[in-house]
């Protein structure tokens, strides 16, 4: 590893920003994390991440990267109240109305609220030497030109000022202003790929009682043909975190009766059983997610030096597939691998990140395009893949080995090609 000196600045102390700061601290003398929100230890949901009201599944690929960056991450989350379970052993999953065959997957699920996960990541990141956190401070724009970004302007308790940095990382999330900021300095604007899903989430907490769900820690009901799905996961504080989801405008209601009725309409009964048999804690909270957006920074002809964009600011996935935090972790790992480079760091980073994003984006977009109401180009390949995936899911209902491979791909641990490896393919086609 070559030594790198200087100052890096990260916009946003969400999951992506924290992971980026952790990686940058290995190579820069100083890393400044700039966050708009006030941050309190062990807080619950804060303004800048309203999505934290809703179920956040951490895929095992993301957990493994976090464990690598913060040894003991899983144990520390458990010490804070998270539950750890092996996927399809301590958890259950319904696809197309039927349960996937139980059996060992080798996948670990850390089950907790998004706030708990973020609190652990923040605590561990700020323990790192050289990282400074500025809260209640909002980045207002970039300073530089099409060739290089040199600084950001911020407003905060100390007023309005400019902070110079050798590398600026935008991890400002889905609401990042990166496109107008690039335009203001005359830099190239990346093209966007968009998929309108008009997804609605409604979430509510319930009191957990021992023995519910057969003692298992979570149940996921994938969106069926009617575009409705949901999850119930046992989180810290002896609570069920229940999220109901509906695509294409068919959003779950927030009133008590409507919420229960929607839970009863899912293709498997478990979530409704939990909702009907548990004491509600607080009100139901809605969230509307209209469009998945992938910004193709990797296709820019000459991205400005001194700036990289990662996390939701680069690609905001349909949350149904629980990929966002894990792809943010994959991008942080890609950034770490590129930090040796000087001049073409952004281009190299975007190329490496594109590989990680592409797999997740194709899995998600492929599933979304199975719904006839989702607009998008369906190539012959997309159609054939969807026929194949339907077959995989049907076999996974009774074959634990196929269920295992299917979920290891969904958790981004194994590549999609694992499903067409000869032994697995034979089971899928001949079953
Ligand atoms: C409803 C919903 C459910 C989801 N469920 C899952 C799931 O199950 N599993 C999963 O892995 N992912 C899920 N995601 C995605 C996940 O939340 C994100 O992908 C992940 O948190 C990474 O986001 P981020 O860090 O890029 O952005 P964010 O988490 O949005 O953080 C951005 C941060 O930047 C700060 N900020 C923004 N602008 C500025 C500025 N100008 N100056 C200073 N600070 C700024 C914000 O305050 C915030 O703290 C879900 C998303 C949604 C919307």
From TrEMBL:
A Pfam family of this chain: FAD_binding_3
Entries under InterPro entries matching the protein: FAD-bd (IPR002938), FAD/NAD-bd_sf (IPR036188)
Domain FAD-binding residues, every copy: 8-335
Gene3D superfamilies cross-referenced by the UniProt entry: 3.30.9.100, FAD/NAD(P)-binding domain
Protein name, as recorded: FAD-dependent oxidoreductase
């Amino acid at each position: 590893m070559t030594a790198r000196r200087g100052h890096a600045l990260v916009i946003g102390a969400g999951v992506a920003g924290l992971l980026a700061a952790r990686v940058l601290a290995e190579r820069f003398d100083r890393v400044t994390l700039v966050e708009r929100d006030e941050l309190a230890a062990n807080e619950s949901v804060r303004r800048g991440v309203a999505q934290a009201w809703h179920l956040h599944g951490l895929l095992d690929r993301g957990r493994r990267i976090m464990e690598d960056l913060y040894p003991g991450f899983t144990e520390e989350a458990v010490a804070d109240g998270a539950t750890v379970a092996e996927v399809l052993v301590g958890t259950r999953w319904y696809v197309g109305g039927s349960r996937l065959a139980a059996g060992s997957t080798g996948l670990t699920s850390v089950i907790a609220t998004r706030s708990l996960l973020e609190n652990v990541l923040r605590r561990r990141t700020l323990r790192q030497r050289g990282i400074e956190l500025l809260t209640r401070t909002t980045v207002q724009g970039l300073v530089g030109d099409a060739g290089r970004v040199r600084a950001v302007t911020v407003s905060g308790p100390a007023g309005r000022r400019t902070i110079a940095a050798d590398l600026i990382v935008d991890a400002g999330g889905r609401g990042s202003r990166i496109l107008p900021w690039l335009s203001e300095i005359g830099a190239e604007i990346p093209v966007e790929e968009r998929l309108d899903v008009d997804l609605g989430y409604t979430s509510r907490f319930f009191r957990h009682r021992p023995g519910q769900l057969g003692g298992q820690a979570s149940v996921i009901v994938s969106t069926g043909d009617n575009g409705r799905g949901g999850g119930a996961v046992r989180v810290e504080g002896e609570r069920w975190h229940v999220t109901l989801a509906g695509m294409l405008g068919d959003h779950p209601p927030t009133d008590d009766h409507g919420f229960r009725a929607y839970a009863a309409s899912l293709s498997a009964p478990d979530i409704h059983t939990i909702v009907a048999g548990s004491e509600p804690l607080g009100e139901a909270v809605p969230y509307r997610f209209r469009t998945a957006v992938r910004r193709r920074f990797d296709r820019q002809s000459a991205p400005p030096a001194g700036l990289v964009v990662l996390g939701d600011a680069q690609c905001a996935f349909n949350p149904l597939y629980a990929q966002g935090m894990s792809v943010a972790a994959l991008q942080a790992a890609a950034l770490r691998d590129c930090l040796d480079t000087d001049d073409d760091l952004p281009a190299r980073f975007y190329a490496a990140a594109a590989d990680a994003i592409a797999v997740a984006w194709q899995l998600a977009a492929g599933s979304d395009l199975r719904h006839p109401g989702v607009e998008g180009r369906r190539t012959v390949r997309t159609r054939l893949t969807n026929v194949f995936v339907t077959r995989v899911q049907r076999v996974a209902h009774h074959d634990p080995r196929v269920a295992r491979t299917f979920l290891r791909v969904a958790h981004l641990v194994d590549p999609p090609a694992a499903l067409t490896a000869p032994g697995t393919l034979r089971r899928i086609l001949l079953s």
